Amino acid sequence: MSLILSDILKGLFYFLVALLISVSIILFLRIRYLSDYLIHIKKPSQVDSIYVFCGNLEEYLWRIETGAEAFKEFKAKEILLSDDRTIGPWVPEFQRNLTTVERAQRRLIDLGVPKKNIYIVPGKFAGTIGESRTLQNFFSTHSTNSLLIVTSPYHLRRAYWCVRKSLNSTIKVYTYTFDVQKHKETLSFNYFVMEYIKLFFYYIVYV
């Protein structure tokens, strides 16, 4: 009897281990698929304008560097930035705190983007949808045929959706992001979950 019970318990243990492994694989594949859905990359062969979405200073500078790379790679005519009116750290050279957009401009110039090709999109905004609507206003008086938006990996889907919803349908919209292997922290689980919450919120509220 004890041998039968031992065999049953052993079989149950192996079953639970197999079940745990199976569930883990399924969850991994599902999360991987959902991650791929967020990272919506749509590269052009050539583009007129590039817009770099705002963000926290460290991540924003990664986006700026990616924007400079894209400017050269896709032979763009201009890079567009928005002023979110945040103040960055003290800069001894200027004896004052530079705004985030001022630091972004300086970084672009350091990376070889001519100052005359950098534009600041006017207007106040809140959130990705607000930022996209400032682009809508900007392009009502500023001509372009195509726009490449640069942002963080998990933000790509929502940013693309907002821009596509805001802009004239004649403007072709593409997406680009930085090398995620260099900045794996932007693929954290918390970032992943929060982005889906924001994405569903946008789909419901701004449909």
Class based on secondary structure composition and strand pairing: alpha/beta
- Count of DSSP strands: 7
Number of domains: 1
CATH domain topology: Rossmann fold
Strand content: 15-25%
Overall geometric form: elongated
Helix amount: 40-55%
Radius of gyration: 23 Å
Separate helix tally: 6
Q: What sequence of helices (H) and strands (E) makes up the elements? A: HEHEEEHEHEHEH
Strand order of the largest sheet: 5-2-1-6-7
Write down the CATH class.
Alpha Beta
Q: Could you tell me how far the N terminus lies from the C terminus, measured between alpha carbons in angstroms? A: 65 Å
Mean pLDDT: 84
- Report the CATH architecture: 3-Layer(aba) Sandwich
Largest sheet at a glance?
A: 5 strands, parallel
The parts where pLDDT drops under 50 for at least 5 residues are none
